[in-house]
Specification:
This is Xylose isomerase. It comes from Tetragenococcus koreensis. One of its GO terms (molecular function) is isomerase activity. Keywords: Isomerase. By secondary structure, this protein is an alpha/beta fold. It has a single domain (about 5-275), classed as TIM Barrel, CATH 3.20.20.150. The protein has 12 helices and 10 strands. The two termini are about 25 Å apart. The structure holds manganese (II) ion. Manganese (II) ion (MN) binds near residues 149, 184, 212 and 253. Manganese (II) ion binds next to loops.
Length: about 300
C-alpha cells in the first residue's frame, strides 16, 4: 500500500517546516506525499522538493490544487474569463511541478465552483466552461493523471461537481484517457453515497485515480480517523480498491484538532493495516462469493467474521 497523509495536520507541531515533517512521515512509515499547490511549494523549487523527498525516502504521489481568494466566486467555471484562465494556468503550473518531482496525479477540487442562490449561475454555461478547461488541462499534461475530487457542498452551499454521478458525467464528456476521479470517503458520506459503490464503478473502469480516506457521520466533512465511525463501510470500500488493484496512494484526509497529529496518523496506519490484513485473511474470493449470494443475512455473517 502506498500511504500518504495531510501535511496541514503536521504543520503546527513541526514549525511549518516541510523538512521536519517529511522526516517524521518517513519515521512513522508513510511512503508518499501529496502537496497542496501552490500552498506547500511557494518557497521551494521542484528540484529542491525532489531532493527533500529523496532525502527522506519518500515519493511524490502528486499535487492537489488549492485555489485562493481571487477564485472565491469560482475557479475554472468563474464568470470572469480572466479568472478562469488564471485557474487553468495555475493548474498547468501545478502539473509541471508534479512532473518535476516525479508525481503522477494532479488532484483538482473545485471548492468555489458552485452556487449559494437560485438564479445565481448559468448552469449550462458553467458546465461547458469547466468541461473545456478540463480538456485543455488534460491535453496539456497527457503523461499525468488529472483527477477530479468532488464534494457536495462547503465552502459553497452547493458545489458544482457535487457527486459521483455528476463527476462521472463530466469525466465522460471530457473524454480523455488521463482524466479520472478521486473519491473522498467523507465527501461521499455527506452526499449519502456508499463509498464502496464508487470504488467499484470507477475501479472497474480504471478511473479511480485517487483515494482520500477518513471517516465521519455524514452531515459534515468531519475528517475523523479511519474506521472509527463506519468501519464496515470502510472494509467494503477497501475490498474494492484491492479488487481493482488501485495503485495510487491512499491519503489520510483527516483533521486532528485536539489529537496529536503523529499519534492520530499512527492510529490511521494501524487501522488500515489491520483492515488490509483482515481482508487478506478472509480472502477476496470469499468476499466476492458472499456478494454473489445477494443476501443481507449472508452479508451480516461476513461482518461477524470481520469481528472474529
Ligand atoms: Mn479530500
Amino acid at each position: 500500500m502506498k500511504l500518504a497523509t495531510r501535511i496541514n495536520s503536521f504543520l503546527p507541531k513541526f514549525n511549518n517546516d516541510l523538512g521536519e515533517i517529511f522526516k517524521e512521515f518517513n519515521h512513522i512509515g508513510l511512503s508518499h506525499v501529496d502537496l497542496n499547490y501552490p500552498e506547500h511549494v511557494e518557497d521551494i523549487s521542484a528540484q529542491n522538493m525532489k531532493e527533500l523527498l529523496d532525502k527522506n525516502d519518500l515519493k511524490a504521489n502528486g499535487v492537489a490544487l488549492r485555489f485562493r481568494n481571487e477564485f472565491i466566486n469560482g475557479e475554472l467555471g468563474n464568470a470572469d474569463k480572466e479568472i478562469s484562465e488564471k485557474a487553468v494556468q495555475l493548474t498547468k503550473d501545478a502539473a509541471d511541478y508534479c512532473r518535476e518531482i516525479e508525481g503522477e496525479v494532479v488532484t483538482i477540487w473545485l471548492g468555489f465552483d458552485g452556487f449559494d442562490y437560485s438564479f445565481q449561475i448559468n448552469y449550462e454555461k458553467v458546465w461547458q466552461q469547466i468541461k473545456n478547461c478540463m480538456i485543455e488541462i488534460a491535453d496539456y499534461a497527457p503523461d499525468l493523471k488529472i483527477s477530479i475530487e468532488y464534494k457536495p457542498f462547503q465552502p459553497r452551499a452547493y458545489a458544482f461537481i457535487d457527486s459521483l454521478g455528476i463527476a462521472m458525467s463530466m469525466m465522460n464528456e471530457i473524454d480523455r484517457e488521463n482524466v479520472g476521479i478521486t473519491l473522498d470517503y467523507c465527501h461521499m458520506l455527506m452526499k449519502h453515497e456508499n463509498p464502496a459503490y464508487g470504488a467499484s464503478i470507477l475501479g472497474s473502469r480504471q478511473k479511480l485515480f485517487g483515494v482520500h480516506l477518513n471517516d465521519g457521520y455524514g452531515l459534515n466533512d468531519d475528517g475523523l480517523m479511519i474506521g472509527t465511525s463506519s468501519l464496515v463501510k470502510t472494509f467494503e470500500f477497501l475490498y474494492y480498491t484491492k479488487l481493482h488493484n488501485y495503485d495510487q496512494a491512499i491519503y489520510f484526509d483527516t483533521f486532528p484538532v485536539i489529537e496529536d497529529p503523529v499519534e492520530e496518523c499512527e492510529a490511521n496506519l494501524k487501522m488500515i493495516t489491520r483492515i488490509n490484513e483482515k481482508i487478506d485473511q478472509i480472502g477476496l474470493n470469499k468476499i466476492t462469493s458472499i456478494i454473489e449470494k445477494n443476501s443481507g443475512v449472508t452479508a451480516s455473517e461476513l461482518v461477524l467474521e470481520i469481528l472474529s
